[in-house]
Amino acid sequence: MNISRHLKIRASGKYLPDKCILSSELEEKLGLPRGWSLKYSGVRERRHVEEESNADLAVGALKQALQRAQLNLGDIDLVINASATFDYILPFQAAFILESFPLKKHQSIAAMDINSSCLSFISALEVANSLLQNEQYQRIAIVSAEVSSKGLNPDDAECMTLFGDGAAAFILEKGSSSDIEVCKSGIKTYPEGFHYSIIKGGGNKYFFKDYTYDPLLHSFSMQGKKLLRLVKRKIPEFFDSFFKDESFGINDVDILIPHQASKAGLTIFQSLYPDFKGLVYSHLETHGNCISASIPMCFHEVLEKGMIQKEQHCLLSGTAAGLAIGGLLLKF
Amino acid sequence: MNISRHLKIRASGKYLPDKCILSSELEEKLGLPRGWSLKYSGVRERRHVEEESNADLAVGALKQALQRAQLNLGDIDLVINASATFDYILPFQAAFILESFPLKKHQSIAAMDINSSCLSFISALEVANSLLQNEQYQRIAIVSAEVSSKGLNPDDAECMTLFGDGAAAFILEKGSSSDIEVCKSGIKTYPEGFHYSIIKGGGNKYFFKDYTYDPLLHSFSMQGKKLLRLVKRKIPEFFDSFFKDESFGINDVDILIPHQASKAGLTIFQSLYPDFKGLVYSHLETHGNCISASIPMCFHEVLEKGMIQKEQHCLLSGTAAGLAIGGLLLKF
Fold first, then answer.
1. What is the predicted pLDDT for the residue at B1?
2. Which of A92, A213, A321 has the CB atom closest to B117's CB atom?
3. B123 HSE (CA, 13 A, CB side)
4. Maximum CA pair distance of chain B?
5. Cβ contacts of A264-271, under 8 Å, gap ≥ 24
């Protein structure tokens, strides 16, 4: 079917909590040598919430995007929360974002959560584009807001130095031929890696009634080496399938915006694709891994800085707990 | 835009855990008069899991749907988990459903979670239909699987007698003109009702590190009267807007498949629309409220029983924690 796949980004926004945690502070606390975090995790500083909720971060990012678009919340038809962490088990987080927004009493907007862990923004962008093309909705806001800092094991140096908190929001409309073209999107799940990055406790499997709080059970845990080995094997398989029917391959991409998984994660791409000549954008050093908020925060920065030229191809891509690998290719 | 909105339901499936809890047992435990549950909650019996996970229920329903469609899991392009409860905080639940499926090693299917609490199936069906119409995917499975029983306060008679566990799965393809037509879908969120039905603890807001298990905090709690009052006010507003541009109204619907919220919730519809002549399907008495699984389980039963005739209109609709109200209108 001949469907226009042009998408208009009306505006985007970003929000970080105020509290900045320097790696040097963490290294002192954890008894690590000075410079360990930057060397191994790739992170010099990151933000952590103090009193703020996930929804507070989401509202911060969404407000900025709305201001820049000169719109009000009431001008949005659908709010998609595309995040892995949340404030309440029930109701869904998008409802709490609306509840946390000023002047909420007057709103009756459609809302839903979409979650594919670190790739939630890519899943949501795929869905939003489809709903806009079908004119099911006229204007959609996607918000990714992550509080990773609560779910970290304070004794786990690798995770403590890697993760940060933050949020980004995008306001989208169906575009015309002069707007961005969504060339391709796709996600694959490789469940053999399910247990390699996980928060075991807190759901129905290890229900909190039956398991009292234990940082080993209720924090994010990662089997880093096994995960990296699987990722290394699956990435070429994923991209081979992703670009199969396209007239060009990954080396023709101008700007890659990868999920800021870790220093090792970012290095894998470069080792697998040594001929890649495009720009690989990263803010890992100053933000850490902000789960699903990493890709849209980086995308927001790239747009802010005017780094993408007309006709250029931009690929949002990454890995996620699941294990999932995903990509979304845009032509500007 | 003139888009075909015809949808083919290849097959559906349903799965219930074995353990049946009679209301008479609960009434004895809770010191309630015999018959209280049926009278006030509308429930005579419901199923509760013993050892089963959310994913086990999901796999049970999905296996039945696949068998009936004479398909394998590998024939599915995208698995959407459309549920409110889950086994793990991270990764997302759809990945765990794939992990729990036999022969998982060979799969690399796209997967995501969609959550709008009790209306998750409606949100997922809206999204799946859009993705199929745009030929982004050829065949999508939606699975709603809920374990409500773990999140109940054992001293809360109203909730203990109301909720059940269960799952349903639908396999969908883009249809032709002889298939079902998706006439209309929509969800509205009214965040003023956010706190009326909630599980407070377990997310980042009341993080389990800071709040030890307390049935009052970590169970589902409902301000029933406030919720019903708000629902009563918002339902007419919702349906007025839903049917605004249609050539017919709610009284022209042949079969209503409502979320099995509660006896009082089902009564509201009848009191608001006394002229409604269509069939209102309910299995509340034998299943209880199974959160997001209620609507697709009822829909599956209605299809199984051949209750919908060609040319008839079927409306899936309900309320959800959020507060959200949603509907999806199908013409057979």
1. 34
2. A92
3. 37
4. 60
5. A264/A224, A264/A228, A265/A228, A265/A231, A265/A319, A266/A42, A268/A228, A268/A231, A268/A232, A268/A235, A269/A235
Reduced to 3 states, what is the DSSP secondary structure of residue A110? strand
Q: What is the pLDDT of residues A187-203, one digit of tens each?
A: 999 999 999 999 999 99
DSSP state of B12: E
Residue at A117: amino acid letter: S
Burial (CB count <10 Å: 0-12, 13-18, 19+), residue B50: exposed
B89 CA: distance to closest CA in chain A (Å):
6
Write out residues in chain A with pLDDT < 50, as ranges.
1-3
How far apart CA B57 and CA B147 sit, in angstroms, is 8
Which of A84, A134, A188 has its CB closest to that of B90?
A84
A157-189 pLDDT tens trace: 999 999 999 999 999 999 999 999 999 999 999
Give B 80-109 residues with CB within 8 A of chain A: 84-92, 94-96, 98-99, 101, 104-105, 107-109
ipTM value of the model? 0.96
Report pTM: 0.97
**Cβ A108 vs Cβ B189: under 8 Å:** yes
Return phi, psi of residue B99, to 5°. -65, -35
